[in-house]
Amino acid sequence: MEEQKTENKEELQQETTEEKNSDQGNSSTRSSLLWIFAGGYLVYTGYRLCANVISGAEDSSTGFLVAGGIFVVIGAVLLIMAVRNLAKAGAQKHEMEEAAAKKAAEETAKDPEIAAAGKKRMSIAQRAHLAENLDDAPEEEAK
Fold first, then answer.
1. Which of 40, 61, 65, 100 is the most exposed place for a label (fewest CB within 10 A)?
2. Rounded to whole angstroms, how far apart are CA atoms 31 and 25?
3. Each residue of 37-48: pLDDT tens digit?
4. Shared-domain flag, residues 27 and 95
């Protein structure tokens, strides 16, 4: 019974860790998307400033050309960093999915009942019996 409690605690800790990682993944994705929009806006603004100076528009000076160049460079850096962060997040998500699948396969290999249940179809009576066992489990732990 102690072993079962320990296993339940370990599973709960792993689920909590996985939830935190998924929340961080979502936050990272949102941040990367904001960086993409900000970088794109800076590149566009810098391009428009440089284009106005080159075309000889009124009220344009070399200061605008310099500012436009800086905007383009900063925007490009933001875009590159955001794309790299998205690629990393995708790779980490893929690794986590592989680890979860591997863990599930190991658990199935450890418990032959789970492996047998996964491979064969259960009748309605077997399913009812399985549900009865689940209802009895908390009562045994309370004693």
1. 61
2. 10
3. 999 999 999 999
4. yes
Helices (H), ranges, the chain: 2-55, 62-110, 112-119, 124-142
CB count, 10 Å around CB of 66? 13
DSSP readout, 76-90?
A: HHHHHHHHHHHHHHH
Residue pLDDT, tens place only, 97-134: 888 888 877 776 676 665 555 556 777 777 777 767 66
Domain membership of residue 16 (yes or no) is no
| Proportion of the chain above pLDDT 70, given as a percent | 65
If asked whether residues 79 and 138 sit together in one domain, one would say: no
Average pLDDT, the chain: 77
Q: Please choose, from the candidates 43, 25, 51, the residue with its C-alpha nearest in 3D space to the C-alpha of residue 80.
A: 43
Rounded CA-CA distance 143/139 in Å is: 7
| Residue 52 covered by a domain | yes
Question: At residue 57, what are phi and psi to the nearest 5 degrees?
Answer: -65, 155
